[in-house]
Amino acid sequence: MKRYEFFGHTADIAVKAYGGSLKELFTSSALAMFSILVSKKQNRPETILKEVIIKKTEEALEDLVKAWLDELLFYFSSQCLILHRIKSLDICEGALEAKVLFETFDKDYFQTGQEIKAVTYHELKVERIRNKWQAHIIFDV
């Protein structure tokens, strides 16, 4: 199963993220966002990772996806940290708790992509279709 796909959208970037579980869906949405922000030129011989614990609580799944992506975007924008790996991710009854490993942006190993100004509420939708989860997300670039 593909993790995400991009769609044309006027002046923004739209993505559909997929997952067999909410954990996979949230992971796919994060991977999609970082694929817009950066691409890897080459592997580092030695990577220093920073572990961050992210906790969010929201009533609606759409709000939880947005809060999750907003937090990841904050670390990228404010500290130049790039998602390396999601160590753990638990989602239960409107609450999310994750341990995320970030690495520092280095122009020798990464190329910048498009700047994301914001994760928007415009057309934001999370739904379960048969036995799979799907999210429609629009990033303001």
Key phrases:
single chain; 141 residues; alpha+beta; Archease, Possible Chaperone, Chain: A, domain 1; five-stranded antiparallel beta sheet; three-stranded antiparallel beta sheet
Structure characterization notes:
By secondary structure, the protein is α+β, with helices and mostly antiparallel strands. It has a single domain (4-39, 47-140), classed as Archease, Possible Chaperone, Chain: A, domain 1, CATH 3.55.10.10. Helices cover 25% and strands 48% of the residues. It contains two helices and ten strands; from the N terminus they run ββαββαββββββ. Strands 1, 2, 8, 9 and 10 form a five-stranded antiparallel beta sheet that branches. A three-stranded antiparallel beta sheet has the order 4-6-5, with helices on one face. A two-stranded antiparallel sheet has the order 3-7. Helix 1 (22-37) packs parallel to helix 2 (61-79). The model has no long low-confidence stretch (mean pLDDT 95).
Main structural class: alpha+beta
Q: State the end-to-end CA separation.
A: 27 Å
Number of strands: 10
Strand content: over 45%
Determine the mean pLDDT. 95
If helices are DSSP runs of H or I spanning 4 or more residues, what is the number of helices? Answer: 2
CATH architectural type: 3-Layer(bab) Sandwich
CATH class: Alpha Beta
* Count of individual domains: 1
How much helicity do the residues have? 10-25%
Low-confidence stretches: none
CATH domain fold name? Archease, Possible Chaperone, Chain: A, domain 1
- Could you spell the SSE succession in H and E letters? EEHEEHEEEEEE
Shape: globular
Main sheet characteristics: 5 strands, antiparallel
